[in-house]
Specification:
The complex is a heterodimer of chains A (about 250) and B (about 325). Chain A has helices spanning about 35-55, 70-80, 95-105, 125-135, 190-195, 235-245, and strands spanning about 1-5, 10, 35, 55-65, 80-85, 110-115, 140-150, 150-160, 160-170, 170-175, 200-205, 210-215, 225-230. Chain A is an alpha/beta fold and about 250 residues long. In chain A, the strands form two sheets. A nine-stranded mixed beta sheet of chain A has the order 9-8-7-10-6-1-4-5-11, sandwiched between helices. Chain B has nine helices and 18 strands. A seven-stranded parallel beta sheet of chain B has the order 7-11-6-1-4-5-12, with helices on both faces. A five-stranded parallel beta sheet of chain B has the order 15-14-16-17-18. Chain B has a three-stranded antiparallel beta sheet with strand order 8-9-10. Classes of the chains: A alpha/beta (about 250), B alpha/beta (about 325). Chains A and B meet through helix 3, helix 4, strand 7, strand 9 and strand 12 of A and helix 3, helix 4, strand 7, strand 9 and strand 10 of B. Strand 9 (about 160-170) of chain A pairs antiparallel with strand 13 of chain B, so a sheet runs across the interface. The complex binds flavin-adenine dinucleotide (FAD) and adenosine monophosphate. Flavin-adenine dinucleotide binds next to helix 6 and helix 7 of chain B.
């Protein structure tokens, strides 16, 4: 079984975000970059499938600048077999990135393509189903649990207040959410082995980015809150404030 | 006259309230650019009769694909039908709800039509005749203003952010052709199970009560459930990641960077410390209430109102006070 996992280099969730002087980008100074958390869940799910099958190949693939090699290497260290870096600058238009991924994946003949539900930089949550549509394969999004058997993927898809049980014939794409896929840590052995694994680089065939970023802004500051009081004695005053000041109950 | 399409959503034969929000937003933008408001509704045969309900929120024309083949949601089949309807129809913009369905559907429609898509918008403006979209990035740590360079602007709108407003008018109902092929039905839903809690989804609830690790265990969740029940049908339970990782609650309830981003009118953070990744998911809530025994917990910095105290002491009193209020 051949599985392709799409992953992206994104700022760490702990990093302090500063808008750059151009007002339209994030200042990279002081930011630690990581593999997108959901992409890591997807890779974990892929590695487990390969282990369960006892055979197969896991390919990690990323569209990004040269520095994204670091995240692909992290994927190799976790256990992926080879990496493909499509060099280019992904913008906010996910369709442009999906086209670059599709150009590479069209001929790869993966049985399964896995993505995270979203990349935690632009939070667009769109590339998975776009990529599947471009490739003409079925896809299941927001997958919290899955198995592959008899040429089919069976998945649990999270929806409002419930779970859809969905199945699709391979080849297919699944976009992974968190639930059961806590990613493994790379072992020292894994990190050493990663250095010898195949690593391919080529230019990304990005589509035209048709989303024009005008400006970035910080979220509105929340006004300083107040402690209403201590323990159960403070409850009547809280209820009064919620009713008369905030008018939310 | 140009046209704006609002994609409505139904489930189990009822129009979901996000549809009204999307329609109201479409009507507001249509007012600024001088466009007609259309709506699209896909579902089983019986939904035909619901189309009129969409007129009430401002649709002049409702395009309905009512067919029992659409009884269960199918991303590709719904997308095929919508994309064929949108293609060549000359819509200036198409708005989707950024609900579970809309998040799955909109990218499929976009790829079929070769159109870019902006998701999860929190504000829409018209500037010099162009649609300006505001959407959070980096889990709400920054907001981007952007425009879309395409003849048809595809945007999904965050639930609970655009207020629905009644607009009494009659809609003309038209049939939308169902164009799904067998290839569009390769992914099939074999079953749907309701979450064990029967919880309203946190992403859409106007009131959320989230519990954190300080609740000490799932056996104490009845305290939160009692408060939710006192607040009525609009309230849902949420959780911090610590709680989900411990297996006390399902991931569907997690709020934060790797959970849901929510903006209810009222958010209770109970025994939650207020880590950056949690705040990212809830800081745009209307009113935030924190209950925590540690007066220095960072959650108090973003909370409008805080009570320093033990959950076993504060929650029963709060539930009783709210029950008394609802009964008067
Ligand atoms: C990549 C990444 C992604 C993450 N994503 C998320 C996410 O999506 N959502 C999320 O929530 N976190 C996320 N986290 C985790 C986050 O950093 C925190 O660890 C987590 O939010 C802590 O949960 P908590 O507040 O419930 O627990 P704690 O930080 O342990 O806080 C418990 C609180 O309960 C209070 N308390 C204890 N007992 C009582 C009592 N009897 N009465 C009243 N108060 C009491 C304590 O004073 C304390 O403030 C993420 C972390 C990483 C690294
Ligand atoms: N530049 C990229 N390179 C490779 N995969 C990506 C890239 N951007 C996004 N993805 C994948 O697509 C998923 C959804 O991303 P997005 O639609 O951008 O939120 C991510 O979780 C990744 O798996």
């Amino acid at each position: 079984m051949k599985i392709a996992v799409c992953l992206k280099r994104v700022p760490d969730t702990e990093s302090r975000i500063r808008i750059a002087d151009d007002g339209r980008s994030i200042d990279p100074a002081g930011i630690k970059y990581v593999v997108g958390p959901y992409d890591e869940f997807a890779l974990e799910a892929a590695l487990r499938l390969k282990e369960a099958a006892g055979e197969g190949e896991v390919v990690v693939i990323s569209v990004g600048e040269a520095a994204s090699a670091e995240q692909l290497r992290a994927g190799l260290a976790m256990g992926a077999d080879r990496a493909v870096l499509l060099k280019g600058q992904p913008g906010m238009d996910g369709l442009a990135t999906a086209k670059a991924l599709a150009a590479e994946l069209r001929d790869m003949q993966a049985d399964l393509i896995m993505t995270g539900i979203k990349a935690t930089d632009h939070d667009q949550q769109q590339i998975g189903p776009m990529l599947a549509t471009l490739l003409g394969i079925p896809s299941i999004t927001v997958v919290a649990a899955m198995e592959v058997a008899d040429g089919k993927v069976k998945a649990h898809r999270e929806i409002e207040g419930g779970v859809e049980h969905v199945e699709a014939p391979l080849p297919a794409l699944v976009a992974i959410t968190k639930q059961g896929f806590n990613p493994r840590l790379a072992s020292l052995k894994g990190i050493m082995a990663a250095k010898k694994k195949p690593f391919e680089e080529k230019e990304a065939q990005l589509g035209t980015d048709r989303i024009r970023l005008i400006a970035l802004a910080y979220p509105p500051e929340r006004p300083e809150g107040r402690i209403v009081g201590n323990g159960a004695d403070a409850v009547p005053e809280l209820v009064r404030l919620l009713r008369e000041e905030a008018r939310v109950i | 006259m140009s046209k704006i399409l609002a994609v409505a959503e139904q489930r189990g034969g009822a129009i979901r309230s996000v549809s009204h929000e999307v329609l109201t937003a479409a009507r507001t933008v249509a007012g600024s650019v001088g466009a007609d408001v259309h709506a699209a509704l896909i579902g089983p045969a019986a939904i035909g009769s619901l189309a009129a309900d969409l007129g009430r929120f401002g649709a002049a024309t409702v395009h309905v694909a009512a067919d029992d083949a659409f009884a269960a949601y199918s991303g590709d089949a719904f997308a095929a039908t919508l994309a064929e309807h949108i293609r060549d129809a000359g819509y200036w913009a198409v708005f989707f709800p950024a609900s579970a369905m809309g998040k799955d559907l909109a990218p499929r429609v976009a790829a079929r039509l070769d159109l870019p898509l902006a998701t999860d918008a929190t504000a829409l403006d018209v500037d010099n005749g162009e649609l300006v979209i505001e959407r959070p990035i980096l889990a709400g740590r920054a907001f981007a203003r952007l425009t879309i360079d395409a003849p048809t602007r595809l945007v999904s709108l965050r639930p609970n952010t655009f207020r629905a407003q009644d607009h009494a008018a009659a809609a003309t109902v038209q049939t939308m052709a169902a164009t799904a092929s067998s290839d569009d039905r390769r992914a099939v839903i074999t079953d749907v199970t309701a979450a064990a809690s029967g919880n309203l989804d946190v992403a859409e609830a106007p009131i959320i009560i989230s519990g954190g690790r300080g609740m000490k265990g799932p056996e104490n969740w009845h305290l939160l459930e009692a408060l939710r029940d006192a607040l009525g049908a609009r309230a849902a339970l949420g959780a911090s990641r610590a709680v989900v990782d411990a297996g006390w609650r399902p991931h569907g309830e997690q709020v934060g960077q790797t959970g849901k981003t929510v903006s209810p009118n009222l958010y209770f953070a109970v025994a939650i410390s207020g880590a950056m990744q949690h705040l990212a998911g809830m800081r745009s809530s209307g009113t935030i209430v924190a209950i925590n025994k540690d007066p220095d917990a960072p959650i108090f910095k973003v909370a409008d109102y805080g009570i320093v105290g033990d959950v076993h002491d504060v929650l029963p009193a709060l539930t009783a006070a709210i029950t008394a209020l609802e009964n008067t």
